[in-house]
Amino acid sequence: MNILIVEDEIGILNFLQQGLEEEGFTITTAINGVEGLEKALHSSFDLILLDWMMPKMSGLEVCQNIRKQNTTVPILFLTAKDTVQETIDGLKAGANDYIKKPFSFEELLERIKIHFRKKEETTLQLGNITLNKNTFQVYVDQKEVSLTQREFELLAYLIENKGKVCTRNNIIEDVWDIHFEYDTGVIDVFMNAIRKKLNLSKNQDLIKTVRGVGYIAND
């Protein structure tokens, strides 16, 4: 698996590179945002580790620019930022996960492995919405719609659980893979984005809001 590490602190960069190479990963590095964006857009990576605060271009800007190119490569932020709003900003920019500095290498490795779990090749259907888990493509009436990877994962989860109420806590645990107290309000941000892109109203039958609980998908 090929990983791009974008980190301006050389000590952390070298530590991560050595540790991940020992685990069998192929590592490419960049020491600022501009260099990181260039490498991300001109080479193929299975995952990107991205520092938030960097010279020339912030990690947030790098993430936003990567997602403008319609790529679904998983992006994990390495950051000292940990407020709810900053977390939301990172997720809305297209990040899949974040790990707070300082962190243990073992924790980071487990987070990386989660994103490398092989996805079963399958096509999911919800009304006029078709979702291919293998190619990360979504179609509405055979017209392709671009979703971020987190939006894609959330939509897939709801479709896979058609007819069942998916609580916000279950979504945070099963989609975000977060198993501690967390602000579930970020889910609503992603659902609003999904509905807008799929042209769904809040009360449309395909995906309904269960007030105070979560969401349910139905044909």
Automatic annotation (TrEMBL):
Q: Does the keyword Nucleotide-binding apply?
A: no
On this chain, the residues bearing 4-aspartylphosphate are D51
What region holds the Response regulatory domain?
2-116
Record's keyword terms, sorted:
DNA-binding, Phosphoprotein, Transcription, Transcription regulation, Two-component regulatory system
Where on the tree of life does the source sit, at the highest rank? Answer: Bacteria
Query: One biological process GO term for this chain?
Result: regulation of DNA-templated transcription
Q: Name one GO cellular component term.
A: protein-DNA complex
Output the Pfam families linked to this UniProt entry. Response_reg (PF00072), Trans_reg_C (PF00486)
Q: Which InterPro entries match?
A: CheY-like_superfamily (IPR011006), OmpR/PhoB-type_DNA-bd (IPR001867), Sig_transdc_resp-reg_receiver (IPR001789), WalR-like (IPR039420), WH-like_DNA-bd_sf (IPR036388)
Q: Which CDD domains match?
A: REC_OmpR, trans_reg_C
Annotated Gene3D superfamilies: 3.40.50.2300, Winged helix-like DNA-binding domain superfamily/Winged helix DNA-binding domain (1.10.10.10)
Segments of the chain annotated as binding DNA: 121-219
An annotated Gene Ontology molecular function: transcription cis-regulatory region binding
> Any idea where the OmpR/PhoB-type domain is?
121-219
Q: What protein name applies here?
A: DNA-binding response regulator
